[in-house]
């Protein structure tokens, strides 16, 4: 496996594009030779091959020296809100979107949801953030232009884009029957990710987006656009593990931990499946709403030892959406023998593993990341049938900093959605 020597800060400033690529291909400095060779084919000079196992950053940069050929014949100006560094400050940013290619769909964005992952990445809490960064991967809007080969969409249609905008299309993960592009080694995330043309993908806090048809979702006609936006990340992120881990059967008992954007969607979707839902939260603040508005069946405060003891061993599974460090052992105590605890929250530090608690009840501890395009469409159709949209607070783009602060304080019911159409003018 080739080892790439990590660059000095001077080298990073001299080769920002190649450094961004290095963070994508080999975040730790170790590059899988096969993947590296594939990237060279995509981004670099096809004639060059890897000669040895240890390469300097200068050699790495040389392999990818092909100038960006970003299909920029007639790029279109796009206005967005971008972070320039990890300070958490976003400001207006004008950039180019590629022109509509034969398989592309151009969407005028009306709304974009604010996911906690936006905040983690803006602040570089997971490392490797690429700036300038226009966040946003819960995108809805109206199609304004389609390429000559596009079949599913026409101008005027409602359309959505979630966390991914492209993938290789041919690997085992992309191909049928899996269709789980989120696991493709060449998956292109909607923002904070290098695209095959050498530019950084920019997300939905912006006036429009151009995406290949395969990654554009049909939106239900019976749901308003603003409450549909959060389904594209929060919705699929909780729907997919419920299906995958078999926690979607009517009558099953599911615990939902953390009642933010993901958590409230987990309650609504599980109730739509006929599942019995217990919310596990750090405070009583959201209890009444959880029971009456979100229709959860039970509500437990995690610090209430009596209630936690009474509920011990009662759940078939748990979807854990918590965004910060927390006690996994307390959650494992709530599930039955053979219960499943599924993590979808991504704290910036590892959690301690309650080894004995897992072993003595043969508990499965799992994880899950968003869901493939096929499953995202299935989830949208399910939500349309059940009339499930997110519970949102609509805000203007210049409210984004306050929204981030309130999200950190858990002061959000239950998803902020930016009114892009009404507050960001191109
Ligand atoms: N796996 C995936 O594919 C995926 C997709 C989207 C988001 N995420 C991650 O899921 C997490 C939640 O995202 P969200 O948008 O719902 O965020 P959110 O801020 O809306 O909700 C997080 C919830 O966690 C609770 N919480 C925070 N700190 C806690 C603590 N120490 N103990 C207990 N509860 C605590 C908050 O009260 C809140 O209810 C984030 O880490 C996000 O990055 C993962
Ligand atoms: Zn998200
Ligand atoms: Zn693939």
UniProtKB/TrEMBL annotation:
Domain Enoyl reductase (ER): 88-418
Any GO MF annotation of the entry: zinc ion binding
A Pfam family per the record: ADH_zinc_N
Cofactors, names only: Zn(2+)
Entry keywords, A to Z: Metal-binding, Oxidoreductase, Zinc
Biological processes per GO annotation: lignin biosynthetic process
Family the entry assigns: Belongs to the zinc-containing alcohol dehydrogenase family.
Protein name: Enoyl reductase (ER) domain-containing protein
Species of provenance: Volvox africanus
């Amino acid at each position: 496996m080739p080892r790439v020597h990590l660059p000095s800060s001077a080298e990073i400033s001299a080769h920002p594009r190649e450094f961004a690529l290095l963070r994508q291909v080999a975040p730790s400095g170790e590059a899988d030779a096969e993947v590296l060779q594939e990237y060279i084919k995509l981004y670099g000079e096809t004639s060059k091959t890897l000669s040895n196992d240890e390469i300097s950053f200068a050699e790495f940069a040389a392999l990818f020296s092909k100038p960006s050929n970003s299909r920029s014949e007639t790029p279109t100006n796009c206005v967005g809100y971008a972070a320039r560094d990890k300070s958490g400050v976003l400001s207006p940013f004008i950039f180019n979107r590629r022109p509509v290619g034969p398989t592309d769909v151009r969407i005028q964005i009306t709304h974009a949801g604010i996911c906690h992952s936006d905040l983690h990445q803006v602040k570089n809490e997971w490392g490797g953030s690429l700036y300038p960064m226009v966040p946003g991967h819960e995108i809805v809007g109206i199609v304004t232009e389609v390429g000559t080969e596009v079949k599913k969409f026409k101008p005027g249609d409602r359309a959505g884009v979630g966390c991914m905008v492209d993938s290789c299309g041919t690997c085992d993960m992309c191909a049928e029957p899996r269709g789980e592009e989120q696991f493709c080694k060449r998956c292109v995330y909607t923002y904070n990710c290098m695209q095959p043309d050498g530019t950084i993908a920019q997300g939905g806090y912006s006036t429009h987006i151009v995406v290949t048809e395969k990654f554009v979702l049909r939106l239900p006609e019976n749901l308003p656009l603003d409450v549909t936006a959060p389904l594209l990340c929060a919705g699929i992120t909780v729907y997919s593990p419920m299906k995958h881990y078999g926690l979607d059967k009517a009558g099953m008992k599911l615990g939902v931990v953390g009642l933010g954007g993901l958590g409230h969607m987990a309650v609504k979707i599980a109730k739509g499946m006929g599942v019995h839902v217990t919310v596990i939260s750090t405070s009583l603040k959201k209890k009444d709403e959880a029971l009456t508005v979100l229709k959860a069946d039970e509500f437990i405060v995690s610090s209430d030892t009596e209630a936690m003891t009474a509920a011990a061993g009662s759940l078939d599974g748990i979807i854990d959406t918590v965004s910060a460090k927390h006690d996994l052992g307390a959650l494992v105590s709530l599930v039955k023998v053979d219960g499943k605890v599924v993590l979808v929250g991504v704290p910036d530090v590892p959690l301690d593993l309650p080894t004995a608690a897992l072993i003595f009840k043969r508990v499965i501890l799992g994880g899950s990341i968003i869901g493939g395009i096929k499953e995202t469409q299935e989830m949208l159709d399910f939500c349309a049938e059940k009339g499930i949209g997110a519970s949102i607070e609509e805000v203007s783009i210049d409210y984004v900093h306050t929204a981030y602060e309130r999200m950190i304080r858990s002061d959000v019911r239950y998803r902020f959605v930016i009114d892009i159409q009404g507050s960001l003018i191109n």
